[in-house]
Amino acid sequence: MDRGGSYDIDLPIRGGVREIMDLGLKGRCVLVSGASSGIGLAAAQLFVEEGARVAICARGVERLEAARRQLDPDGSRGVLALAADLSQAAAARALQQQVQSQIGPVDVLVNNVGGPPPGNTGSVDDAGWARAVELTLMSAVRMARVVLPGMRAQRWGRIVNVSSTSVKQPIDNLLLSNSIRMAVLGWAKTLANEVAQDNVLVNTVCPGWTRTPRVQQVLDASARQGAADGMSAQESVARGVPLKRMAEPREIADVIVFLASARASYVSGAAVSVDGGMVQGY
To answer: Considering the domain boundaries, does residue 176 fall inside one?
Structure first.
């Protein structure tokens, strides 16, 4: 089923009219997790602008409600905000049922949970590993499990996982993220192969350093270890990026929304770096 939708981008002007890229997202039901701030909120904003029916979730009720008001100030867009802790096993099914009953079956799932806390081999115990696996890996596995039957039945669906460049180039003091996000990537690639024949496409976006609360947490941890203060840590990060700056959340969201769109109809199983050229591998 193809639905309308348009997305303004800087395309050449022909005949006095700028061309518009139709992303085919109008009317699609989109669920974005971790959407109370940062990349998740930026992605939700773009989906709303595309005319999608959008549900957002996060753990913090107050921040989630503030995000909903930002996305839908007068309530005319019908943005649905649902508090959920996706590190809990029962949360995925409950969330999927709430979204389906209120705005419809999920066409697009954006798995975007906050990453595990910073740490190294000596500072992370078994309980810390288990919490990180539940949050970073199992939340994505469970959410995909509950939305896939509907996607496969209608022979259209998109799952976009928001990961990190740490799957391609490990980041110091992020032991849990470096390790468990690799597991997410392996799972996503395997899943993509399983469901592509049903026109369900699974891809992963790997952001580099981006101006988000999560990144600020990492920089603060670096400062506490005496590596640098917050400002000099940001400057140091920017020096390591060929573009010489950190990304804005909307720049990551642009890629997420494209991969979720009808225009990305032959992209499956990819891990797309959006990092200003920071990762030097291919």
So the answer is: yes
pTM attached to this predicted model: 0.88
Q: CB neighbours of 142 closer than 8 A, spacing ≥ 6?
A: 86, 89, 91, 92, 93
Cβ(188)–Cβ(269) below 8 Å: yes
Helix 249-259 to helix 38-49 angle (10° resolution) is 50
Distance of CA 269 to the CA centre of its chain: 15
Judge whether 16 lies within some domain: no
For residue 94, the domain's CATH number is 3.40.50.720
Query: Residue 149 contacts by C-beta under 8 Å, 6 or more apart in sequence?
Result: none
Residue-range definition of the domain harbouring residue 223: 210-246
Give domain status of residue 196, yes or no. yes
List CB contacts of 225: < 8 A, sequence separation 6 or more: 173
**Dmax over Cα atoms in the chain, in whole Å?**
64
Tell me: the pLDDT tens digits for 134-169? 999 999 999 999 999 999 999 999 999 999 999 999
